[in-house]
Amino acid sequence: MMKKLFLVLLLCATGGIRAGAKYEAVVDARYSEAPGRVVKGVPHFASLSQALAVAPATSAPWRIFIRKGRYYEKVTINRPEVHLIGENREATLLTFDAHSDTPGPSGGTLGTWGCATLMIRAPGFTAVDLTIENGFDYPGNARKPPGDSTKVRNTQAVAVMLAEGSDRAFFGRCTISGYQDTLFPNAGRSCFDRCRILGHVDFIFGAGQALFEGCEIVSRDRPDKNPTGYITAPSTPASFPYGFLFLDCRLIKEHPDLARGSVRLGRPWHPHADPAVSGSAIFINCFIEDHLGPEGYAEISAVDSTGEKILFTVEPNSRFFEYGSRGPGALITRQRPQLSAEAAAWYSRAQILRGWSP
After folding, report:
1. Annotated active-site positions, please?
2. pLDDT digits (tens, 9 = 90+) for 171-180
3. How many domains does the chain have?
4. Is residue 153 domain-resident?
């Protein structure tokens, strides 16, 4: 059944609705009639939120075809087996511009945990051939003078978060775009296949088990900062053998003028200074450009429940390793530990996904 569904997605996602394809809803930014009106046998909506609002509370797949367009929405997926199929990866755009300091609906601010453009809280989610971004203007905000009252202080701005309840989340040929804290796979298992993920500070972070296979991991510049960025900030529980696994990925820079050696592969994030965390990020058979240098990784601080600031170093507070790296940034130094061939064999698609085969 799953193989048949995936074949339908492959055949239909890039060229509009094809004969034989089955969708429960179509979202079209140009649609202007009553939400849910049936057109050619399928209910049509002007927004993704409208299509999700009528999804029945069952575990049957709810497949939504999203036509080309810009959808300015902040969306939470609470229903299992929601499948989003974009008409075109670059031209089907889900965007919102909330950040950590955005006021919350009940007072206070949204924080990192609440600012995501797309929040997943249910199992079996799928997204294919679309772009999801957090549109917060980090570069524009950074150019504001320190005394500017409009300058945002906490600039975390999540595009996608996999929160409690998420498991078996699949992203195929998607672009996930932001700057600081772009992608937050914080729960369950997830798979990112041939995706393009952009950011600069800790832009892939969290406690979940995530496989990145054949992806482009794109570092953006952060002028006048050294380091200019950190690719990962895993907070894997120490009891979990796997965190983030990058297989056959390309770690590249958005612009050629991004300084050599100015980016780190990761740093060991400990939310609330939790000592039961040992972040894991493994890079196997990846191409790496020269924005990665000999240092490899960096330390990070966190504040515990008493308000004390604690510094977490790479050793012994993390599990960062490489194997088979190639390219101008593929350096072997003491600060960039390598796996043996025998150890690398344990870091595989089957091991990290634990019985799930997307």
Report:
1. 181, 202
2. 999 999 999 9
3. 1
4. yes
